[in-house]
Amino acid sequence: MLRKVRAAVIKSTRAYHLAGVVTLAFFAAGLNHRATADVITRHVIYTGIFFFCVWAACRLFTAGVQRRLHLEGVEPHAAGDMITTFVIYLEIIKHVVGVSFTLGWIAGVMACWDFLGDRMLMVPLASSVAVSLTAFAVTFGFSSFIDHLRWPAKDED
Questions:
Q1: Is the dihedral of CA 56, 57, 58, 61 positive or negative?
Q2: Are 119 and 111 in contact (CB under 8 A)?
Q3: How far apart, in whole angstroms, are the C-alpha atoms of residue 124 and residue 112?
Q4: N or C: which end of the chain has fewer CB within 10 A?
């Protein structure tokens, strides 16, 4: 079972397959039997954009796992199941936190412009920069912390 998970994450062709399956689900969920040709055309365009976004996310995740395996001192094709699971787990945590803080950053900047937009330009701009720097500092610190976690190796005497 773990070998299948490792193969799904490490192989580069899996990104196309996963993006295709997710995109088909996205396309099917958005279909409507009363939709006009214009709506269907826009839906096909958005589905294509969605495919490339999911494909890029899969490729970035795979590259992150491979980079992390190199940091652990093993080759991706020679890594054991436990170390690969450990690395995948850490990368999932990093990506979930990154996405959460990105969404929070977007919401924070939009709130700054919504609540402070009627004031001078520098007030919402300065508050947006403050929100951006705070979100960047927190995510960078968390990512650095996760990158310093290592697979427990046996002490060599």
A1: positive
A2: no
A3: 6
A4: C
| C-alpha distance from residue 65 to each of 27, 33, 95, 97, 129 (Å) | 29, 41, 11, 16, 31
Residue 123 CA to residue 116 CA, distance in Å, equals 7
Cβ atoms of 84 and 107 within 8 Å: the answer is no
Separation of alpha carbons 46 and 50, rounded Å: 6
Taking alpha carbons only, the member of 135, 134, 133 closest to residue 98 is: 135
* Residues 101-139: tens digit of each pLDDT: 999 999 999 999 999 888 888 999 999 999 999 999 999
Cβ proximity of 8 and 14 under 8 Å = yes
**What residue ranges in the chain does DSSP mark as E strands?**
none
The token pair at 65 is 């796992």
